[in-house]
């Protein structure tokens, strides 16, 4: 389904019994709602699972950027309003986790529980050249040029070797991401800094991170945990950045116990 929210079309899927609590999933940069496929089966009997493509990704519109984290968060609120959802659990990975933090600060009345995965409360200014380089590569060579290095940051060598079909599916998501959507979100991420405001978050929060995530490492998760009072931290053994896929069994067990 696609609905007009703010000035864009947002693609989403909603599965699960009517009246059940809603769990909203928000994916990483260069992914799409299908990156949560492994979370659907364990949740869909007891929850309404709402998965959406972030602006600039998957089947959502990709207007020219730059985007801001506030814009991306406002798209989530617009979708919830459209679907008449007053409150939701929110699970966000990486970029999705940054959106989740903005929601928890700006719209706490809309959130029941918050799960922040493989994310950070700010992008250090030292990383600015990395984002500029990724933007330049996407604009000059297209998303295919970014696929291999992205997969290497997201999954272990063993996973890429042993799960070629799953790896290929994610690769397709990366290369199909519109360049304008990717670069628009890169700019939102590179300017992201919620470090001064995160201590205001009172929503019950679980933080999960792949043990070997390099882009948003365990230390970044620990920083978030120190700032959000009462939050829990779970490190997913062996996983890199897309811990919900490579570490799905651990991820799902911890997610279910936190939500229930
Ligand atoms: O994945 C994201 O949503 C942003 C952070 C990032 O680019 C991490 C990575 O791909 O290594």
Work out the helix count. 11
Total domains, how many? 1
List low-confidence stretches: none
Helix content: 40-55%
Assign the CATH topology. Rossmann fold
User: Describe the biggest sheet?
Assistant: 8 strands, mixed
Strand content: 15-25%
**DSSP strand tally:** 8
Indicate the overall shape. globular
Give the termini separation: 28 Å
Assign the CATH superfamily.
Alpha/Beta hydrolase fold, catalytic domain
What do the pLDDT scores average to? Answer: 98
What molecules are bound to this protein? the ligand O=C(O)CCC(=O)CC(=O)O
The Cα radius of gyration reads 17 Å
CATH class descriptor name: Alpha Beta
- Named CATH architecture: 3-Layer(aba) Sandwich
- In order across it, which strands form the biggest sheet? 1-2-4-3-5-6-7-8
**Secondary structural class:** alpha/beta
The assembly state of the depicted protein chains is single chain
**SSE succession:** EEEHEHEHEHHHHHEHEHH
Keywords: Hydrolase
EC number: 3.1.1.24
GO molecular function: 3-oxoadipate enol-lactonase activity
Protein name: 3-oxoadipate enol-lactonase
